[in-house]
């Protein structure tokens, strides 16, 4: 989770970063921050200025006067959803900014490092003092200990030592650096526009391309897996940033859950439009569905807004194509001013949170055969409460269709999936086979039928990449972890747990 953004050679870098972060607010809602690099004539050097705070981007930057205090030409920003490090600690708000022997360094990170505990222990024994409990802080400390003179080479050496998932934006004095892990787990994109006054290029980096759209920025390409891209004054002159590459991994492991749920449908992720893949998920789900319908009694298909809207459209279109009449309707209305439901503790709190977030349109649902399309089930408690809410409209039947395979394992690469014991599938892991397990889940949630998209159907929905045997990480569905998790920790609050 989390979202990162960077800009170079802009007259309004702080404002640009604000709008970029605002567009990718869905990637993290706990905190937000911006670090700006600007030239100080009195000091005759580049200096960093920052503003960070807990809450949504609009809350952190609600005072317009903040931007007057953040002059410069380059900036990086971060939206936080904690997967390591205490969520309520202000010391964990990114970007992290440091002063070291080579000048100033600031970093923002999307992903998780899987060998962070071991590296943190080694650095602590060497006398390094950590200010935060986030794994991200390890990277600038490793860079600071490098004997290389140039910051980009220091960062290269630091990233050679870390394992896991990382999409990074870094300010190193007068340079903007973007980096992506060799497996390519998390997305990162390069954009560019031309300053009409100077004719010079302005470069942008973002987790998702929807952050470019709000600023009318052209999407150029993805940062490649293992690429370290450096943007500086020379890149402005030539129009071409310089790249270094980390040693390649044996396979790529793009997170398929970005397509299933996390990315916005109007974004291009991993070089492909999310909307198209999400429609494919819905189409393949329709092909695998066993719910019958007729012209006289059509399936009324509703989505759990908003992440399932596009899959539901694909489901309806394919259902009609294969002569299984279906009609898309708005059966659930979402209140967009309520935060995420799965972070709420306690059953009573969760029920009122679901009712605060969703409401039903009774006339659409009453006495109808309803197919509910959702993208995934994690703990299952929200799904159970949602079905209970839909039951109040007295539909004939409720069929729950999920546009992904069952989630059976926690994520160690940056998604906030709980430990295996907290997953709904673990509750019924004593079932003798998959059919019995799904039947028990169906009964627990309270629907007339439950259908998950098969793993192969999910993979068939996503684009194939040339010359790659394996393109995606499916660890949360299969338990096949492409990057070692031997030293990884499933707890985000601490590094010394033994679980």
Polypeptide structure, described:
This protein is of the alpha+beta class and 499 residues long. It folds into 2 domains: 3-253, Aminohydrolase, N-terminal nucleophile (Ntn) domain (Glutamine Phosphoribosylpyrophosphate, subunit 1, domain 1, 4-Layer Sandwich), CATH 3.60.20; 277-462, Rossmann fold (3-Layer(aba) Sandwich), CATH 3.40.50. It is 28% helix and 24% strand. It has a 7-stranded antiparallel β-sheet. Helix 9 crosses helix 10. The model is unreliable at 341-346 and 491-499 (pLDDT under 50).
| Unreliably modeled segments | 341-346, 491-499
Total discrete domains: 2
Distance between the termini: 22 Å
Class computed from helices, strands and strand pairing: alpha+beta
Give the number of DSSP strands: 24
CATH superfamily of the largest domain: Aminohydrolase, N-terminal nucleophile (Ntn) domain
Main sheet summary? 7 strands, antiparallel
Q: Average pLDDT value? A: 92
Helical fraction:
25-40%
Coarse shape:
globular
**Taking Cα atoms only, what radius of gyration do you get, to the nearest Å?**
23 Å
CATH class of the largest domain: Alpha Beta
Task: Name the CATH architecture of the largest domain.
Answer: 4-Layer Sandwich
Measured by DSSP, the beta-strand proportion falls in: 15-25%
Query: How would you write the strand order of the largest sheet?
Result: 3-2-4-1-10-9-11
Number of helices: 17
CATH fold topology of the largest domain: Glutamine Phosphoribosylpyrophosphate, subunit 1, domain 1
């Amino acid at each position: 989770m989390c979202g990162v953004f960077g800009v170079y050679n802009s007259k309004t870098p702080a404002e640009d970063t604000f709008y970029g972060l605002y567009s990718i607010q869905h990637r993290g809602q706990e905190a937000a921050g911006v670090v700006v690099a600007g030239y100080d004539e009195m000091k005759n050097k580049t200096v960093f200025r920052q503003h960070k705070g807990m809450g949504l981007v609009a809350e952190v930057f609600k005072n317009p006067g903040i931007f007057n205090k953040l002059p410069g030409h380059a900036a990086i920003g971060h939206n936080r959803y904690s997967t390591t490090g205490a969520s309520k600690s202000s010391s964990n708000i990114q970007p992290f900014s440091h002063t070291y022997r080579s000048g100033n360094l600031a970093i923002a990170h999307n992903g998780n490092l899987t060998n962070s505990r071991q590296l943190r222990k080694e650095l602590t024994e060497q006398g390094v003092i950590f200010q935060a409990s986030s794994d991200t802080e390890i990277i600038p400390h490793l860079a600071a200990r490098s004997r290389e003179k140039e910051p980009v080479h220091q960062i290269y050496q630091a990233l050679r030592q870390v394992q896991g998932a990382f999409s990074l934006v870094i300010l190193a004095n007068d340079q903007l650096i973007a980096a992506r892990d060799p497996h390519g787990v998390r997305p990162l994109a390069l954009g560019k526009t031309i300053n009409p006054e100077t004719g010079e290029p302005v470069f942008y980096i973002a987790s998702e391309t929807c952050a470019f759209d709000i600023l009318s920025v052209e999407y150029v390409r993805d940062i490649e897996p293992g690429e370290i891209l450096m943007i500086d004054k020379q890149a402005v002159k030539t129009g071409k940033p310089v790249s270094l590459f980390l040693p390649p991994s044996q396979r790529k492991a793009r997170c398929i859950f970005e397509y299933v749920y996390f990315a916005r449908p109007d974004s291009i992720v991993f070089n492909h439009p999310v909307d198209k893949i999400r429609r494919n998920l819905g189409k393949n789900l329709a092909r695998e569905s066993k719910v019958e319908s007729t012209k006289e009694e059509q399936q009324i298909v509703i989505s759990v807004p908003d992440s399932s809207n596009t899959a539901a459209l694909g489901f309806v279109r394919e259902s009609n194509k294969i002569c299984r009449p279906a009609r898309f309707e708005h059966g659930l209305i979402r209140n967009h001013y309520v935060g995420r439901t799965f972070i709420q503790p306690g059953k009573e709190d969760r029920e009122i949170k679901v009712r605060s977030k969703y409401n039903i349109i009774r006339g659409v649902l009453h006495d109808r055969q309803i197919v509910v399309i959702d993208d995934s089930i994690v703990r299952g408690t929200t799904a159970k409460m949602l079905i209970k809410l839909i039951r109040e409209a007295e539909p004939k039947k409720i069929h729950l269709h999920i546009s992904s395979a069952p989630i059976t394992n926690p994520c160690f690469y940056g998604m906030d999936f709980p430990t295996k014991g907290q997953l709904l599938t673990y509750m019924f892991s004593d079932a003798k086979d998959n059919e019995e397990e799904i039947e028990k889940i169906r009964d627990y949630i309270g629907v007339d039928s439950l259908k998950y998209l098969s793993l192969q159907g999910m993979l068939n929905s996503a684009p194939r990449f040339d010359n790659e045997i394996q393109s995606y990480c499916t660890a949360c569905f299969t338990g096949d972890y492409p990057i070692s998790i031997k030293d990884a920790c499933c707890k985000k609050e601490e590094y010394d747990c033994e679980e």
